[in-house]
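User: Here's a structure from my thesis project, written as structure tokens. My advisor, Dr. K., wants to see whether a designed sequence matches the one we expressed. Can you design one independently, without my sequence as a hint?
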């Protein structure tokens, strides 16, 4: 897919700078099964928290969710009204709802409550949508946003009876603050190049994992297009990855096409795991990754 910002190209170049050594002796057929928040999934490849997919395909949001459900993957969802979220959860997809940093915290609390009542397995906040490109607070589809304090974030965590995840983290500093607030997971992401020249998520992944002490799962989002990309993220410590834009062109062909691509990527992942001597996701080894000059 074409790059839409410098950050996307930088991220792709960084992925391609990571090289993998092979380890055949004593290797076995691997398992890609993943457990997250008490649920078991067939793959660590998750959908990304997209929104407004009705602009891409009819009923795009539920088609996307059904694709995740068919492939045994975690499903993430972004903006949308209450009935849409209820329909998404109704597909059977194990869903994580990501909420924007609305200026009015009452709206955040209301969305947390609704997501929990609807049956979402976790909720979270997209903190990187707080500001616009000219230094003011962002406005998303007419909805005013505002940056949140660590204390406000802690209030959101306390309001949720399901795990609360911090999305849009690109520094150990924000990861540490998220952990202080009680977040149960971190998504390392630059939101498809929301700022130019953003550090690639993979470049700071290990620093962020170190900052959290491995106490919560850390996920990677942005630019993931293949099982090899997935492998590199997992080898460097990610719990799972999110794939969004790579799947969007498949929505018009239906949920089965989305599921098939997730399954293909999972098979690609398994192929690399077998050739590097990794039997399960818990046995990923960062020493298999080497980096050429970037």
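Assistant: Designed independently from the structure alone:
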């Amino acid at each position: 897919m074409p790059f839409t910002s410098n950050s996307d190209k930088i991220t792709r170049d960084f992925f391609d700078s990571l090289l993998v050594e092979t380890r055949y002796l004593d290797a076995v057929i691997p398992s890609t099964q993943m457990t997250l928040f008490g649920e078991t999934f067939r793959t660590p490849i998750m959908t990304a928290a997209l929104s407004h997919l009705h602009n891409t395909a009819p009923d795009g949001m539920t088609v996307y969710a059904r694709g995740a459900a068919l492939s045994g993957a975690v499903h993430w969802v972004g903006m949308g009204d209450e009935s849409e979220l209820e329909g998404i959860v109704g597909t059977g997809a194990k869903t994580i709802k990501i909420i924007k940093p609305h200026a009015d915290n009452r709206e955040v609390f209301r969305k947390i409550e609704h997501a929990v009542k609807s049956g979402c397995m976790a909720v979270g906040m997209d903190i990187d949508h707080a500001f616009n490109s000219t230094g003011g607070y962002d406005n998303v589809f007419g909805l005013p946003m505002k940056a949140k304090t660590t204390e406000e974030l802690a209030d959101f965590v306390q309001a949720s009876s399901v795990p609360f995840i911090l999305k849009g983290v690109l520094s150990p500093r924000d990861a540490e603050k998220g952990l202080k607030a009680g977040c149960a997971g971190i998504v390392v992401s630059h939101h498809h190049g929301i700022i130019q020249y953003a550090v690639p998520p993979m470049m700071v992944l290990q620093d962020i994992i170190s900052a959290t002490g491995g106490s919560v799962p850390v996920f990677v989002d942005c630019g993931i297009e293949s099982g090899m990309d997935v492998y590199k993220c997992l080898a460097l410590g990610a719990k799972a990855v999110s794939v969004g834009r790579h799947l969007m062109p498949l929505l018009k062909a239906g949920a089965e096409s989305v599921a098939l691509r997730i399954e293909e990527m999972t098979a690609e992942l398994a192929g690399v795991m077998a050739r590097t001597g990794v039997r399960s996701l818990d046995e990923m080894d960062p020493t298999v990754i080497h980096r050429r000059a970037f």
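When you compare it with your expressed construct, this may help: The chain has a mean pLDDT of 96.
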